[in-house]
UniProtKB/TrEMBL annotation:
InterPro entries: Acyl_CoA_acyltransferase (IPR016181), GNAT_dom (IPR000182)
Domain named N-acetyltransferase: residues: 1-140
Keyword annotations: Acyltransferase, Transferase
Name of the molecule in the record: Acetyltransferase
PROSITE patterns assigned to the protein according to its UniProt record, in alphabetical order: GNAT
UniProt-listed Gene3D superfamilies: 3.40.630.30
Superkingdom of source: Bacteria
CDD domains from the UniProt entry: NAT_SF (cd04301)
Amino acid sequence: MIREYQTKDLDSVMSLWLSGNQQAHHFIDPQFYQNNYEFVKMLMPASTIFVQDIDGVRGFIGLMDNYISGLFVDEHYRHQNIGKALIAKAKQLHNELTVIVYKQNSSAIAFFQSQGFEVIGESINEETLEPEVTMSCVVNHTVKIGKCAL
């Protein structure tokens, strides 16, 4: 079940954030994420967060307006459409979504492309000095029933 974040979810969300970053970004010193843990924890309430709750938090998506500030799924629950469901929830709320992904994280780029995102730019992350890509997806909310659009 996807639901809105609750304060009690903070430790689970932060655990997913830390382990997910360290697993997906092997090219960045793991200490970078340890050093930023408390800062990110403090910023969490500034995002709109939805969690996938399957007997506990198994994934989450953080949104700042139409920007995806984070999408993480517990490694034991990956490839079970949790990420796809979280993106679908974000698409319900926004007409356009953007995300920034490290260029070396090819699996994340492929995932976002499978969800309709396209690369629209490249840059260098100022903190890690790693190349990253900006991806965007325009959401079509038109639902056609017969010849009528809602």
